[in-house]
Amino acid sequence: MRRDIPTLIRIHSQCLTGDVFNSTKCDCGAQLHRTMEMIQDEGRGAVVYQQQEGRGIGILNKIRAYALQDEGADTVEANEQLGLAVDLRQYRQCAEILFDLGLCQVRVISNNPLKVRALEEAGLNIVARVSIQVDSHEFAQKYLSTKKKKMGHLLEL
Ligand SMILES: [Zn+2]
């Protein structure tokens, strides 16, 4: 790997339902596949698979949150009703993996400004943020607009 060339990377947050089972409730699976296409087109890059399901609340709580969402709560309200934080993810270990690979200068594929900031705080030199836009199912629209409105995601909806 050429350390002097900024590398295209993504920290992909594990989403069992989206990544493996192609759930239409979110766009995670489509984002993971689009990321791999972008890296393939680039010819080099890395995906760190962040095993912090459901923004860190775990799969069981995520399914509980989905049940509340089926009753009308949005993704933020559902976590709050369960007495859980909206986002518990930690990024330091992800940055450490990239350091171990020798990747200190990176271009980050993400729409989440908080994730980009957390990676910078973990010591990564982020040369650019690379937007990722995927087609999403109509069932995911409320989830995505909540991420845009309440969590600051830079989405073109
Ligand atoms: Zn998902």
Question: Characteristics of this structure?
Answer:
alpha/beta, about 45% helix, binds zinc ion, about 160 residues, four-stranded parallel beta sheet, globular
Please summarize the sheet with the most strands.
4 strands, parallel
What would the average pLDDT be, to the nearest integer? 90
Roughly what fraction of the amino acids lie in strands?
Answer: 5-15%
CATH superfamily of one domain, called what? GTP cyclohydrolase II
Number of helices: 7
Classify the secondary structure makeup into a structural class: alpha/beta
Number of strands: 4
Helix content: 40-55%
The CATH top-level class label of one domain: Alpha Beta
- At CATH's second level, what is the architecture of one domain? 3-Layer(aba) Sandwich
Strand order of the largest sheet: 2-1-3-4
Work out the radius of gyration: 16 Å
User: Would you give the CATH topology of one domain?
Assistant: Rossmann fold
Distance between the termini: 36 Å
**Helix and strand run:** EHHEHHHEHEH
Which geometry do the CA atoms define? Answer: globular
From the structure provided, what is the oligomeric state, counting identical versus distinct chains?
single chain
Distinct small-molecule ligands in the complex: zinc ion
Poorly predicted sequence stretches spanning 5 or more consecutive residues: none
